[in-house]
Hints:
Layout: H1 2-10, H2 14-19, E1 31-38, E2 41-48, E3 53-54, E4 60-61, H3 72-84, H4 87-90, H5 96-103, E5 108-112, H6 118-130, E6 134-139, H7 143-146, E7 158-169, E8 172-180, H8 201-206, E9 216-220, H9 221-227, E10 228-234
Antiparallel strand pairs: 1-2, 3-4, 5-10, 6-7, 6-10, 7-8, 8-9
Helix pairs in contact: 1-5
Amino acid sequence: CYFLSAIGSLCKFSHYIDKLFFTKEKTKEHLYGVFIYLNAKWKLVLIDDFLPFTGKRFKKFAFSYSGGKELWVAFLEKAWAKINGSYARIGCGGSPTEIFDVLTEALSEQVNIHPDYKDFIWETMYDSEKKGYIMTAGTSADIYNLNLDEVGLSAGHAYTVLGVMEIETDKGVEKVVRLRNPYGNGEFNGDWSDYSKKWTPELKKKYNLVIKDDGDFYMSYNDFLNYYITFGICKLHPGFKTTSLKMVRPTKCQ
Length: 254
């Protein structure tokens, strides 16, 4: 989920994802090339076109895949698995910001969520939204005290943040966060969810609300503070550029 939530955010810059592939067609050796940013340098990682399948007659991807016939998600994951040594090593958990670090040159950071700093956290997220940065968020693993299953959330799970907004209602302005479950289904069922009474016909039209279990949902900022413990920011934006300087440590102290 940490991998999928990060690349789900990167979909906002589809041209950037295109640049991660050396070619969209496999070579005569049946290879693909994926660029990974390691140690402040882009490295071309070669992978073959064999992908793990499972299920009856091996018709189902064993790991990550996109909804259609696209293969770029599976190939990106295979390149990530290769530089880590195996699929098993990348499946035990991680941070979305780690994926931002290896797929972009942009600065990324992870922020711990605490109700005592709710104003600062909102300002950070809202400012990141205005600047066009991409974000992710992770739920708590405390399934017993928070009853995450009852509200439609998964414990210890990474989500893509699709939007941060202040919605004007008859009772005033409400802070709302839009998220996406990278698995493509499973949604929050509280305030501002698909069937919430807070959605008026006018608001549904304004925010193009789609009532469907597609993993895309809204929730109040207060609920976000209650169920999520961390969010990540990647400061990638249109026109982004970066420079770096290689530093060499002397062999002897001067």
